[in-house]
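Annotators were shown the component list below and the corresponding predicted structure, then asked to write short factual statements about the assembly.
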Amino acid sequence: MMTPKVTVLDEFIIKRQKDFPFASGDLSRLLHDIGLAAKIINREVNKAGLVDILGMTGDSNVHGEEVKKLDIYANEELLSALRHGGMCCGIASEENEDFVVLNEPFARDAKYIVIMDPLDGSSNIDVNVSIGTIFSIYRRVTEEGLVEERDFLQKGLHQVAAGYVIYGSSTMLVYTTGFGVNGFTLDPSIGEFCLSHPNIRIPEMGMTYSVNQGYYSKFEAGVQRYIHYCQGEGQRGKKPYSLRYIGSFVADFHRNLINGGIFMYPATTGSPKGKLRLLYECNPLAMIAEQAGGMATDGKTRILELQPGRLHERTPVFVGSAGMVSKVMKMIAEERKGPQ
Ligand code: P6P
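Structure shown to annotators:
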């Protein structure tokens, strides 16, 4: 019996290159470079418990958070793959205070920049919870010369591509170039990402909500009202939703993307801009959610329309099934308006 035809990532990328009439192949090669780095990171993530890569470096990252060796490793692998691939002229990373200028002759004039969170959810490494790499690709806005900050401070609307890798029970790469969302599962026996989830669509409604309910008392009234709704108080006897919150954005997002659901990291009284980062966490996952038929807002404004002011700025985020995001936005707006 013939073995079924498997589509591997590189083949798929090249095939879909025709979606871009003027494609030179640079974006395809850039996506390949990211896929290669993901395979290398996956190898280390999978053995993190076995070698001394686990545990603290004793350092902290630009945000004062303890950095695990795997964060640094993932950042260095991605920086190296992108630097040597020659398809991008600059990189912004959660692990770097400032953006990295690639001024090698073959990279300086490249037309793309990459913004990334090399290993999101790294506080979960020690307890073997799924973690992820998140990336965004933009065209540079400066015409020539070394890349500048304004090349990175673009609205998420202008992303050319966005994706994530989830290192979980299996390792998957999910990405979009604006023509739908496709998922690839790594087959370790051949070292290839194989198309396993073509044309992912997020259900209009789900039965799962994801939020750190420990901050409930610090959320605004509309969010608190929506949480009550999820708990069944507002659904006239319908079955309450299930709370699923693993504390790893990529893992929570991926589950909701496949099954339907909403992820919320709202503003709190202590953190008026929430916790998650606009450029390398919310924008890429917002593009994927929208491309899969979902929604992503900060409670009022579409995430992709937010104008970034700084590389590491935060934003509240409500992302997932369109029917659920619309519902919480409605409750937020009603409570902000106050009694009529
Ligand atoms: P909290 C992980 O540290 C992370 O950046 C996201 O991956 C995750 O969704 C969030 O923080 C969890 O934050 O405050 O609920 O622990």
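Statements collected:
1. Residues 120-121, 123, 212, 247-249, 275 surround 6-O-phosphono-alpha-D-fructofuranose (CB under 6 Å).
2. The chain has a mean pLDDT of 91.
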